[in-house]
């Protein structure tokens, strides 16, 4: 469920969750899903997403259970990473109840149609002040009338110490298609985010020489560098729904964690999958290692 109604939200517009939308799952079912995840043989990053996950009435209790069961991977002697993706609409007091665990972080999603700049900025500051690693995804809205609000928010975020920022390009349908942005948008985006941090690395083998390239998201999307059809992709991302059903990103295969509690314990290595899509438009998948056969 979500308390916003963003115009670009495919969850609402495409009936992405079907009859599960606005339904509150029972706690025992959620614990069963967490139990299945906790058996993972490989270390993992576990993101709590929505809709808006903070609307779950027993969120803090569920989060405590996740840390109890999923904090550490003993096989690899390392911590699993747990993070919350939120629109930041809860009060500052709510965010001050979040755990200060070393393996916990918060990813704020700034949706300019609904977010109140002053309120989400207070929530961001409260998590950082408590030592919780925090980052903000700034949704790049296609409407020109909203751009000044985005610019003002970005300006205020730039003043906050230790806050990481990321310009988030929108998808038209799920994560398969980039939004049909106008030419004016690309000019505006270049002026504001064209020189953003370059953290997407590419290597190119020419003869015996390996050339290294760094790009940011604006450059990747505006120059069409996200065309990975035919590449091998080390994608090991899964979407786990509230009923325990699991979908591998970029595949249509579906599994049931409630019936198969050992699903993740049986995955012992990451195998490359061949990219079948014209473009990679999900920024979460964009940075996953991909390679051609010759490399």
Written description of the protein model:
This protein has 295 residues and is α/β, with parallel strands linked by helices. 26% of the residues lie in helices and 23% in strands. The protein is built from 9 helices and 17 strands. It has helices at residues 10-13, 27-38, 59-70, 92-95, 117-129, 147-157, 183-193, 217-222, 283-286; strands spanning 45-48, 72-73, 78-79, 81-86, 104-110, 133-139, 164-168, 171-173, 177-178, 200-206, 209-215, 232-233, 238-240, 245-248, 254-256, 273-274, 290-291. The strands form 6 sheets. It has a 5-stranded parallel beta sheet, with helices on one face. Strands 16-12-17 form a 3-stranded antiparallel beta sheet, with no helix packed on it. It is globular. The model has no long low-confidence stretch (mean pLDDT 91).
What keywords describe this structure?
295 residues, globular, alpha/beta, three-stranded antiparallel β-sheet, 23% strand
How would you briefly describe this protein structure?
With 295 residues, the protein is of the alpha/beta class.
Produce the secondary structure layout.
Layout: H1 10-13, H2 27-38, E1 45-48, H3 59-70, E2 72-73, E3 78-79, E4 81-86, H4 92-95, E5 104-110, H5 117-129, E6 133-139, H6 147-157, E7 164-168, E8 171-173, E9 177-178, H7 183-193, E10 200-206, E11 209-215, H8 217-222, E12 232-233, E13 238-240, E14 245-248, E15 254-256, E16 273-274, H9 283-286, E17 290-291
Parallel strand pairs: 1-4, 4-5, 5-6, 6-7
Antiparallel strand pairs: 2-3, 8-9, 10-11, 12-16, 12-17, 13-14, 14-15
Helix pairs in contact: 2-3
